[in-house]
Amino acid sequence: MADDSRLRERSAREVLDDHLRLSDERRFDDDIARNCAPDCVVLTGRGVYRGHDGLRTLARALAEEVPSGVWQYPTRLAEGRMAFIEWTVESDEAIVNDGADSFVIENGLIVYQTIHYTVLDRSGRVIVRADGTRPG
């Protein structure tokens, strides 16, 4: 990390913006190293994921389920140590129109996060449920 003391002083908004920028650039390892506490906890319909390894597992799953596309963030909120986004993505292979993440940010790092999304095919049929299971 470049200037660790500067990163620790960032507001929730600054962390959120950096997280989204690096995610959009598909720089998941850089995002995790810069923006997430080593002992972070992520709650999803798929279960509880811990630490940087848990985040990498989730990032790989999302990259496999939606390998390309344009990400939109119609809602980006940050207040105090909390942040929240709603997101969508559409690609040739898949659509997500119900993405929502929340964050608790302390000392310039994400310490807790929730993630929710459902992956649909181009005709609107569910490919991957929010709990990570696949129909049929």
From TrEMBL:
Organism in which the protein naturally occurs: Micromonospora pattaloongensis
Boundaries of every SnoaL-like domain copy: 25-112
Matches recorded under InterPro entries: NTF2-like_dom_sf, SnoaL-like
One Pfam family per UniProt: SnoaL_2
UniProt protein name: SnoaL-like domain-containing protein
